[in-house]
Design a protein that fits this description.
Structural class: alpha/beta
Shape: globular
Helix content: 25-40%
Order of helices and strands: HHEEEHEEHEEEEHEHEHEHEHEHEE
Bound molecules: S-adenosyl-L-homocysteine
Number of helices: 10
Number of strands: 16
Length: about 400
């Protein structure tokens, strides 16, 4: 393992008081070296048949890596206000004061808010009765710029004492740079609703990743472990093997992060993403960095690729980073038709990645490299980057 040393680091769960109740850290019975070995073995089991698997890249310090912390608010039967995570497979809240995966500052802010509620007569929302006001608090902190966003998710838009509440919160935590009220009146398990009101600051924070700036709004998708994300993106760009001339498709591009990171080494980059808000953020991010050779399309990646293949478009490299369910055959078959020289496949689920790589290998590609990266220490999740190269047609 890249991180093995003589000293054994403890798992987050070793000694965690919430160990049994929370369920968030599935591997907490293992120390960190054991976790890395476990994930390495999992990737080899699922992807090892395609090519040799590089040693997993772990973290030097696998604690407090989450830059985004979300806490549900509720009241116990005894009337105590609690905030934290849902107990696994239930809607009972496990009260969290500080979690070893989460950013410390974010946890402190959430505890402060919990303590402020009685003074402001703010009642947490009750899912069963539909009564109450505060549903969740979401805190995002940029580790690089230090900017902090607090999102108060409320069940209704009327926030009577909002000005006073925000000024009290800022007095206790002057490091907060923006506060947003998100309104979620619906009875779903989605944390955030569609409507937002900026209560303080700009309504977003800016993070720096791979020397590029990225704007993060309350609802933007953004990787939660910035230290490992840089490693992941750098590996993806390296696997793309760019010389400055290539046309690159960044499929499932989110807010354009990977495409922007690759842009200075590419001829041009085309990003494809289904979520409209993410595309909007991606356009802002490109502008923020003065990147002029990137274009974004709001579309289903499969449909976009089918049309590109039908129109006879050319792409030298396809970078793809689909959600856990993986890609689909319309996307993969169109990639094969476009026949890029290289495909870089980033995945948070090696099972669906194995299925998709298998399709590509059967259709003219060879898997050359696989790099696992530990993006989520103490959980069972593992991220992998694979490089596939088009096989040259056999000489006759
Ligand atoms: N590459 C980005 C985002 C990866 S997450 C990053 O590293 O930050 C996967 C993304 O795929 C999400 O932004 C999601 O909205 C998008 N997505 C999901 N299904 C899609 C589809 N059918 N077509 C295009 N994008 C899709």
């Amino acid at each position: 393992m890249s991180n093995s040393g003589k000293k054994k680091r403890a798992g987050a769960g070793n000694g965690c008081v919430l160990y049994k109740k929370c369920g968030g850290c599935q591997l907490q019975n293992m120390n960190y070296e054991e976790q890395l070995s476990f994930k390495q073995a999992k990737v080899i089991r699922l992807l090892g048949r395609f090519c040799r698997v590089e040693d997993i890249i772990g973290m030097k310090d696998p604690t407090h890596y989450r830059n985004k912390v979300q806490a549900a608010f509720g009241v116990t039967r005894g009337g105590k206000i609690v905030s934290g995570v849902y107990q696994s497979a239930s809607h009972r809240i496990v009260c969290v004061d500080d979690c070893r995966l989460e950013d410390r500052q974010a946890d402190k802010i959430i505890v402060t808010i919990r303590k402020m509620l009685p003074d402001f007569k703010i009642i947490p929302y009750n899912e069963d009765s539909g009564k109450g006001f505060l549903r969740h608090v979401l805190v995002r902190r940029s580790f690089s710029t230090g900017e902090i966003m607090v999102v108060l998710v409320t069940a209704s838009p009327m926030f009577r004492s909002s000005g006073h509440f925000v000024s009290q919160l800022l007095k206790k935590h002057p490091e907060i740079t923006t506060v947003v009220q998100n309104i979620n009146p619906s009875n779903t398990s989605m944390v955030l609703g569609d409507k937002e009101k900026v209560l303080y600051g700009s309504g977003y924070i800016t993070d720096v990743l791979c020397s590029y700036k990225f704007r993060i709004s309350p609802r933007s998708f953004y990787q939660i472990n910035p230290v490992q994300t840089e490693i992941l993106y750098n590996t993806a760009v390296e696997y793309a093997g760019l010389s400055g001339k290539e046309t690159v498709i960044d499929a499932y591009c989110g807010t354009g992060t990977i495409g922007i990171a690759a842009s200075k080494l590419a001829g041009n980059v085309i990003g494809v993403e289904l979520n409209r808000d993410a595309v909007r953020d991606a356009i802002v991010n490109a502008r923020l960095n003065g990147v002029k050779n990137i274009y974004f399309n709001c579309a289903d990646a499969g449909k976009f690729m089918v049309e590109a293949a039908r129109a006879g478009e050319k792409a030298d490299v396809v970078i793809m980073d689909p959600p856990r369910a993986g890609s689909d055959e319309s996307f993969l078959s169109s990639v094969v038709t476009l026949s890029p020289d290289r495909i870089v496949y980033i995945s948070c689920n090696p099972e669906t990645q194995a299925r998709d790589i298998s399709y590509l290998v059967k259709n003219g590609y060879e898997c050359k490299k696989i790099q696992p990266v530990d993006m989520f220490p103490h959980t069972s999740h593992v991220e992998t980057v694979a490089q596939l190269v088009r096989r040259r047609p056999a000489r006759i």
